[in-house]
Amino acid sequence: MAEDRSPIDAALDVMLYAPLGLVITATEQLPELAEKGRVRLSSQVTAARIVGRFAVNQGRRELARRRRQASYGSAENGGATAPHATTPPPDEPSPCEEVGASESPPEPARSVGRGAGEGASKLAAPSEDLHLAIPGYDSLSASQVVSRLAGLTSEELAEVAEYEASHRGRRTVMNRVRQLQV
Q: Which of 81, 85, 104, 176 is deepest in the core (most CB within 10 A)?
């Protein structure tokens, strides 16, 4: 029957009925298409935000680590800045610690005491001198400290919180102490 059609009918199909059908179909399908696009795009935007926040936080941590390393080197060398100190400062945060939270870098030049052979520090004394309930506290990472907090009394938790706030100020440790004190 398509061959029996006149050129006028074929022209009407192409110029009138096809565009009209397209408009009708688009209005019916538009909400569905918009939702499909929103779902796909929002998941990609969410993933990009997560990656972006992680990258920014890693950059901040790296910058803070380098600042501390430079300060640590200058404190150890009697004022001369070490461009590439081989020993990182003892309060370096782990890369996994609190992704997504922005931390202000700890005060530079604050370090844990060293043995007499390595140039005794004039700054903070090791936690063993303060009799904290966690042995070797200053040498532990935040995750190691957090795993040991559950067995402490409320007084011991308060001592740890006070010491942490005045020294390294790790949010992971402080938040866990607050949770356990409730």
A: 176
Residue 164 to residues 72, 116, 145, 177: CA-CA distances in angstroms? 19, 25, 10, 10
Q: Which of the two residues, 87 and 170, has the higher pLDDT score? A: 170
pTM comes to: 0.32
CB atoms within 10 A of CB 163: 18
Q: Is the domain of 90 the same as that of 168?
A: no
Question: What's the total number of domains in the chain?
Answer: 2
Which residues are CB-contacts of 21 (< 8 A; sequence separation ≥ 6)? none
Q: Which domain holds residue 85?
A: 1-124
Assess whether 134 and 81 both reside in one domain. no
Task: Say yes or no: 113 and 61 in one domain.
Answer: yes
- Does residue 134 share a domain with residue 64? no
Q: Is 100 left (phi over 0), alpha (psi -120 to 50) or beta?
A: left
Rounded to whole angstroms, the Cα distance separating 82 from 100 reads: 31
Dihedral angle sign, alpha carbons of residues 83, 85, 91, 96: positive
pLDDT level of residue 123 (50, 70, 90 thresholds): very low
Q: Rounded to whole angstroms, how far apart are CA atoms 49 and 37?
A: 18
Query: Where is pLDDT greater, at 171 or 125?
Result: 171
Same domain, 180 and 91: no
